[in-house]
Design goal:
Blueprint (H helix, E strand, L loop, with lengths): L4 E4 L10 H9 L2 E4 L3 E5 L2 H6 L9 E4 L2 H13 L9 E4 L2 H6 L10 E4 L4 H7 L7 E7 L5 H8 L3 E12 L12 E4 L2 H10 L9 E5 L1 H9 L6 E3 L7 H13 L2
Parallel strand pairs: 1-2, 1-9, 4-5, 4-7, 5-6, 7-8, 9-10, 10-11
Antiparallel strand pairs: 3-8
Length: 248
C-alpha cells in the first residue's frame, strides 16, 4: 500500500517550517492535524471542594504553560490576589517567560530548570522551607510527586485541568493511511469516538513508551515506533517508513 495520507493527533503546528510540512511536500502527502484529546479546566466550584487554599503556599511549581494558564484562571475566578512575594519554579526558561502573560516578570522571584523535572527538584533545595503548590492535570507524570516525596518537600498537588477525549463526530470515518498518536489518552479517545474501529491496513505510529504500550494493550498493531536512538523524532520515523513503503 502506497502511503498518501496521514492524520496527526495533535494541533496544527501553526508554523510554515514544521518538519511535517516538509515531509508532505517531499513525498506528496496529505497531512492533517486533528487533536484526539483536549484540555478542560476544573471549575471554581470543584476546586473549592478540594479545600486547597492557594494563599497557604509560598511557591508554585509549573511544569507547563497550560498549568500557568489554569493557575491564574482559577485564581481569577475565585477572586484570589496572588501576592508579589509568591515564588515561581518553572521546568524551563520558556515556561518561566510565559509568566509575563500574567505578572510583571522582573518584579517577581522566578526560577527555572533546563526542561527536566529532576533538575528543577534539585534546584529547589535552596528553598526547602517553602510550601509548594503544584498545578497539574488529572493525568500527569508519576515522577512529579515521586521526586518531591523522595526529597521531602512540603507540597500540595492541585488538579486544575483534565485531559478528556475530543469530539470527533464531524469525522465519521478515519480515511487516512497512517494515524499518529502521542499519548495513551489519544488511543482511549480513538475507541471512545470509534467503538467499532478495526485497524486492517491502517498504519499506526506512536511516540513514547507509554503510548506504544497503550497501542499494544488495545490490541492494535504498532507499525511505527519513536523515538529510537537512530530515529529521535516522529517525522524521521515516518519518513523512513514511507521510503520503504512507497519505494522512494
Amino acid at each position: 500500500m502506497k502511503i498518501k495520507s496521514i492524520v496527526v493527533s495533535q494541533p496544527d503546528p501553526n508554523t510554515a517550517k514544521s518538519p511535517y510540512f516538509e515531509l508532505a511536500e517531499k513525498y506528496g502527502l496529505k497531512i492533517d492535524f486533528r487533536p484526539f484529546i483536549q484540555i478542560e479546566g476544573v471549575t471554581a466550584k470543584d476546586f473549592r471542594n478540594t479545600r486547597i487554599n492557594i494563599l497557604n503556599h509560598s511557591g508554585v511549581i509549573f511544569t507547563s504553560k497550560t498549568a500557568i494558564d489554569h493557575f491564574f484562571r482559577i485564581s481569577q475566578e475565585m477572586r484570589i490576589t496572588i501576592p508579589d512575594t509568591m515564588k515561581y519554579f518553572c521546568i524551563s526558561e520558556a515556561t518561566a517567560f510565559y509568566l509575563q502573560k500574567y505578572i510583571v516578570y522582573r518584579k517577581r522571584k522566578i526560577f527555572y530548570a533546563d526542561g527536566r523535572f529532576s533538575d528543577l527538584v534539585s534546584m529547589m533545595k535552596k528553598h526547602r522551607d517553602e510550601n509548594f503548590l503544584v498545578p497539574l492535570s488529572d493525568i500527569h507524570k508519576p515522577e512529579i510527586p515521586q521526586l518531591l516525596d523522595a526529597d521531602g518537600y512540603k507540597y500540595t498537588k492541585a488538579i486544575l485541568y483534565r485531559t478528556v477525549s475530543a469530539d470527533l463526530s464531524d469525522m465519521p470515518e478515519i480515511n487516512y493511511d497512517i494515524m499518529v498518536f502521542f499519548t495513551p489518552q489519544g488511543i482511549k479517545s480513538l475507541f471512545q469516538n470509534y467503538p467499532n474501529f478495526v485497524q486492517n491496513e491502517k498504519i499506526i505510529a506512536s511516540f513514547g513508551p507509554a503510548t506504544a504500550k497503550a497501542v499494544r494493550e488495545a490490541g492494535l498493531r504498532l507499525d511505527i515506533e519513536a523515538p529510537t536512538s537512530e530515529l529521535p523524532s516522529m517525522t524521521m520515523a515516518l519518513e523512513q517508513f514511507i521510503k520503504k513503503q512507497n519505494k522512494v
